[in-house]
Design brief:
17 strands, Immunoglobulin-like, 3 domains, binds calcium ion, mainly beta, about 10% helix, 6-stranded mixed β-sheet, 4-stranded antiparallel β-sheet, about 260 residues
Length: about 260
């Protein structure tokens, strides 16, 4: 008996060690979100969610599904479109929908503008909504919650009788303003792009240059005042360059490739 409990304790310690070591920042954040689920999916559930690179078909998942392994990138200021397909066992019941994005990454869906969509009592085969990623969204990885409830509008942090909740991951990236300045006078250039090592930055006035390079998930990797930066130590991939001239701020995507 004693021996068994000792083995169990060791097992728990090993598991704790494993959990602590594999807890990414994202998993810690995930634990903050209050749970919400549909108590029954006998009659209706979420069948498909489409947004950017997310295109997830599913069955009834017991009223809640953590699909945070499914993710898409969205840029601040960009217009996005989300589509939700309900699944019905037989009768087409009225469904109400709510979608939230934790734009300020504080572990809830209750801040201003975090409810990005709601629709009441729909029997449509699918519902579709457009939204714009707001300027005050924090760059990085965050959570989107999609809820569908029979009749009444679901809340982000409560269970409801019939329907389903699915969670997804969004990677918020800086505004992509490059496309908007193409037609204007060239204000900066970054070359070569793609690059294997050095990137050169030219602006009208390089005197007060502040350069920052972000990963695809928004992590600041490098800050410099130089107009010639060596990124040979970076892994191959796409990075976002933020160029602050002291007068203007520009963003540019750069591709690091050996
Ligand atoms: Ca589902
Ligand atoms: Ca929030
Ligand atoms: Ca909050």
């Amino acid at each position: 008996m004693k021996k068994t409990s000792k083995i169990i304790s060791i097992f728990i310690i090993i598991n704790l060690f494993f959990v602590i070591n594999t807890n990414s920042q994202n998993e810690i954040l995930n634990n903050l979100y209050l749970s919400s689920k549909g108590e029954s999916t006998n009659d209706e559930w979420i069948r498909q969610v489409i947004l950017g690179d997310i295109n997830n078909k599913s069955e009834a998942n017991g009223g809640y599904a953590d699909f945070s392994s499914h993710s898409t990138t969205v840029n601040i200021g960009s217009k996005q479109e989300i589509t939700i397909h309900p699944g019905w066992t037989g009768t087409l019941y009225h469904e109400s929908y709510s979608v939230w994005i934790d734009y300020n990454q504080d572990g809830d869906f209750e801040d201003d503008n975090e409810l990005i969509y709601s629709k009441e009592k729909s029997k449509e085969k699918f519902v579709k909504a457009e939204f714009i990623v707001p300027q005050n969204a924090i760059i990085g990885t965050t959570r989107m919650r999609v809820s569908m409830s029979y009749t009444e509008l679901p809340e982000s942090n409560k269970n409801f009788a019939y329907g389903e909740v699915e969670d997804y991951t969004l990677l918020i990236e800086p505004e992509n303003i490059f496309s908007e300045i193409i037609d204007e006078e060239i204000k900066f250039s970054v070359y070569p792009n793609p690059t294997a090592d050095i990137i050169n930055i030219e602006t009208k006035n390089n005197d007060n240059l502040e350069i920052e390079i972000f990963s695809s998930t928004g992590t600041l990797l490098l800050a410099s005042n130089s107009a010639n930066i060596n990124i040979s130590q970076f892994a191959d991939g796409i990075y976002t360059l933020r160029i602050n001239t002291g007068e203007d701020i520009y963003y540019e995507k750069i591709l690091k490739k050996k």
